[in-house]
Design brief:
Strand content: 5-15%
Order of helices and strands: HEHEHEHEEHHEHEHEH
Number of strands: 8
Helix content: 40-55%
Distance between the termini: 115 Å
């Protein structure tokens, strides 16, 4: 064999190896392309699913019926129930907006035979309670054929009783706590504590009494007297509304302590004219209204609403603490 033949054979072997490597490279590129297409399809399916989920949640959140627990007017004759539960305050579950919204929906339902306010609340804002009180009277006058009954479960005190007094009749359990017709405003004083730790409070105002609720400054007798007059005025408004709602049923002349802020059991409240009878929601629906079918018209917040309100409440709370007026507003509780 000639030497040139020996030189040609290694050259052919090297070329075959190069071709094999090229095919392997092409195969890897092709497989990588297929895998990328699969990934793209998976991500496409994921984002489509995410879009549909978002649309579904948005529809659920902003649906006109999302706010009503009871739902439809197509339930047949029924007793409408609206819950007054927890603190009565703006942005809370028992806000005037929520309670009034449920009341209006219940009265506008042609199948409503009677309305029950089921109350379990320590009270709260006199403003929110006043709004609800006035609206109950307005709806009663507009719909004289539909009666409103307040049913106190565990607690119906202060602002909660303010609301209850607007009803045609008030019911409670014998052990319920009822009353507490009074006004309170509380905060703390840190003047001496600041002196002990060597902290100086600096407040700049454009009004002589602008910072009179500041817990870090000494109280002035004139400002304390003024603030007491504000609470007294609010208390008199509360008393006037209760007398208007309860009328002669309230034994106020014989028992002036009714307006002292004390609270009584349901059994005692019956004797004092604070309530009309003992009984619960089912009893009122069955025996008084005559319609056992109960439909709950309490508005329910959407998750979006709850998040927004909690965020707003948190910001307001921090601002109030920073300004030194947290807890200073009058409250019926």
């Amino acid at each position: 064999m000639h030497s040139d033949e020996w030189n040609e054979q290694p050259s052919r072997s090297s070329g075959a190896k190069d071709d094999g490597k090229a095919w392997q490279l092409l195969e890897k590129v092709a497989l990588a392309g297929l895998q990328e297409q699969k990934r793209a399809r998976r991500w496409g399916i994921f984002f489509k699913f995410l879009t549909f989920a978002y649309l579904f949640i948005a529809i659920a959140l902003f649906s006109p019926m999302a706010g009503l627990k009871g739902g439809s007017a197509k339930t047949g004759p029924h007793t409408a129930v609206i819950e007054v539960r927890g603190m009565i305050a703006d942005q809370e579950e028992a806000s005037a907006d929520n309670i009034i919204g449920g009341l209006r929906a219940a009265f506008e339902d042609e199948n409503t035979k009677g309305v029950v306010l089921r109350i379990n609340s320590p009270g709260g804002s006199p403003v929110q309670s006043g709004y609800v009180f006035d609206e109950i009277l307005r709806l009663r006058e507009k719909h004289p054929d539909i009666k409103v009954y307040a049913v106190i479960t565990d607690l119906g005190a202060s602002g909660a009783y303010y609301i209850a007094s607007a009803a045609d009749e008030i019911y409670a359990d014998k052990a319920s706590l009822v009353g507490s017709i009074g006004v309170t405003a509380a905060s703390f004083g840190f003047v001496e504590a600041m002196g002990k730790v060597g902290v100086e409070r600096r407040v700049y105002t454009s009004g002589e009494h602008k910072a009179f609720l500041d817990p870090f400054q000494p109280q002035k007798d004139s400002e304390t007297e003024f603030w007491q007059s504000v609470l007294k005025t609010t208390h008199q408004q509360f008393i006037a509304s209760v007398k208007k709602g309860r009328g002669e049923r309230l034994k106020a002349d014989e028992h002036p302590e009714l307006f002292s802020g004390l609270v009584w059991s349901g059994e005692q409240a019956l004797e004092l004219g604070l309530i009309d009878k003992l009984g619960g929601t089912s009893y009122v629906a069955r025996e008084v209204i005559g319609e056992e079918n109960i439909v709950d018209f309490t508005p329910q917040e959407t998750p979006f609403d709850r998040f927004a309100k909690r965020l707003g409440a948190s910001v307001a709370e921090h601002l109030a603490m920073w300004m030194g007026v947290n807890g200073a507003a009058p409250a019926l509780r």
